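Lecture notes, unit on protein representations.

Consider one protein chain, 169 amino acids long.
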Amino acid sequence: MRPLKVAARAKSFRLTQAISPDRSLSALAISAFISYIGAGEAISYPIAIPREKSRWSGVTRVSDKRVNPGWTPTAEMRRENPRLPAHVPGGHPPNPLGVRALYLGSSMYRIHGTDAPWTIGDAVSKGCIRLYNEDVLDLYPRVPIGTRVNVTWRRYRSWPSVAQTSYAL
């Protein structure tokens, strides 16, 4: 297998233990990283996670993918911050979704880039998982629609256990 090219901040790990050939994403938000597992490798990316009151967990699937997605804040977001615009078009520099978005199930939640890279590593979102734009550009082509996504708040101690747990659910 040829080595994968990964984003500068991402970490790549070769898994020596056999795992399911299906691809999977695990958002291990309490540890502030997301891992992509496929083809015998796991790649982690630093993330920004949801604020405590907006946290959710469960297993879902990538239902859609968009390049330069537009962003429309929810009514709740606009109540909390009336200065928010009604809509920010895709490709616009202050777009909170950044350059790519993976939509999760039928929810409003996404795994996406950001216009605020200084927030990566913090609990700042209303439920979405943010990556650096260069990392979401690396992840986006690896993840087909239908990919399983497991969001958990459980801590993991080692990478092989991440791979094993992600497929054990």
